[in-house]
Amino acid sequence: MSALKRVGDAGRLLLDLVSRDPPFVRGGGLNPHDIPVFTFHSLEPRSFERKMRYLREAGYQAISMNAYLDALSGRAPAPPRSVLITIDDGRASTWTVGHPILKKLGLRATAFLVTSAVHDSTEVSKTIAEVETLEWGPLVARDHAHGRPFVTWGEVRAMRDVIDVGSHTHLHARIPISSITADVMKATMQWGYGVFDCPLIWVNGREIRGREVPLGTPLPESAPRLSGSPAYRSIDDRYETPLEASDAMRFDLGEARRLLQEKAGVDARALCYPWHVHSEEARWIAAEVGYGAGFAGKATSGPAIAKPGADLLTLNRVGEDYVERLPGPGRRSLLSILREKLLRGRHG
Predict the structure, then answer these.
(1) CATH number of the structural domain spanning residue 323
(2) Which among 322, 327, 315, 330 has a CA at the least distance from the CA of 13?
(3) How far apart are the first and last CA of the chain?
């Protein structure tokens, strides 16, 4: 990593601290009725367990999605010192790592699944609770494997005793927004989470992405499907009409709810926006197809921690690194967390 990039990363971290992160991250307290929402992706056993154990030993309760939404809607108060743990994408470690740790510690979480990525199998793999520590490697590495980097439908059904299930849309799609080339197809975009970074493109009369796209294929400028931008259709050299764009968002949002109900018996009312991007129209369509809550990422507007009466379709979250900045015995220093984040960026 260049020195210039390191300076830029450090600057963004500091800017987030003063403008987007909640006060407890900087060393402040937590208001009695605040419920911070934390977001995770791939789960590493020791790091995830350390953070979850900190919550339990500091007296926090990781609550269900229903309890969280009840509290914000004023239907029922949440227990004291409540937090909401969310895990995005449905990567395999949600099951192999997250489920056994949460169950052992008596905590709950919510997993937001990309339904097109869930493996259509009843198979349920072993978790880290079922093998020796020396055998954890393959279970953790599933997130980055070519074969089964996301959970199966069998695992989705099995995890529901401690993990609530929500939607991360059906496709987690990026769409072309012009004919200008912005990148070329790389091997990292053919598997796992990398597929989502490949925009949907037209090749030989078909709309494709991921490993169907030949390496080296020019990739156009793109934006998240829920951004509200119309897709550029190279197949007929035009942009989507507003109706076509709305229908595409409606399918992406509605198909996820349909599959979660059909495959796992879940009436998914909570949604996580891919790349944390959502237009006004996307939020309106989300409500229309049955979602009652929508989560983004760090606050860009509104409070970092939602209060009762907040707009439930514009909820913000806090990065997983700051779980141990919550007030409590053994609170981790901010300096050590920032140093770790910068080092991770340097090597990742």
Answers:
(1) 3.20.20
(2) 322
(3) 9
Mark whether 49 and 194 lie in a shared domain.
no
Q: Give pLDDT, residue 203.
A: 87
**Average model confidence (pLDDT) for the chain?**
92
**How far from 186 is each of 180, 198, 212, 223, CA to CA, in Å?**
18, 9, 12, 18
Q: What is the pLDDT of residues 91-128, one digit of tens each?
A: 999 999 999 999 999 999 999 999 999 999 999 999 99
Residue 212, phi then psi, degrees to nearest 5: -75, -15
Are 39 and 274 in contact by the 8 Å Cβ rule? The answer is: no
Q: Look up residue 151 and give its amino acid.
A: V
Q: Which residues, in sequence order, are bridge partners of residue 38?
A: 85, 318
The dihedral through the CA atoms of 277, 11, 221, 196 has a sign that is: negative
Task: With respect to residue 273, please indicate whether it lies within any of the assigned structural domains.
Answer: no
Co-location of 74 and 217 in the same domain: no
**Nearest alpha carbon to residue 94 among 173, 166, 36, 195:** 166
| Reported pTM | 0.94
Q: Which two tokens stand for residue 214?
A: 């030949």
Contacts of 334 (CB under 8 A, 6+ apart): 25, 26, 27, 325
Q: How many H-runs (helices) and E-runs (strands) does the chain carry? A: 10, 14
- Beta-carbon contacts of 229 under 8 Å, excluding residues fewer than 6 positions away, are 175, 177, 223, 245
Rounded to whole angstroms, the Cα distance separating 182 from 198 reads 11
Is there a domain that residue 279 lies in?
A: no
82-to-30, 71, 225, 264 alpha-carbon distances in Å: 11, 10, 33, 27
Helix (H, G, I), strand (E, B) or coil at 231: coil
β-pair type (174-184, 318-319): unpaired
Is 69 inside a domain boundary?
yes
> What are residue 102's phi and psi, to 5 degrees?
-60, -45
Domain that holds residue 103: 3-168+296-347
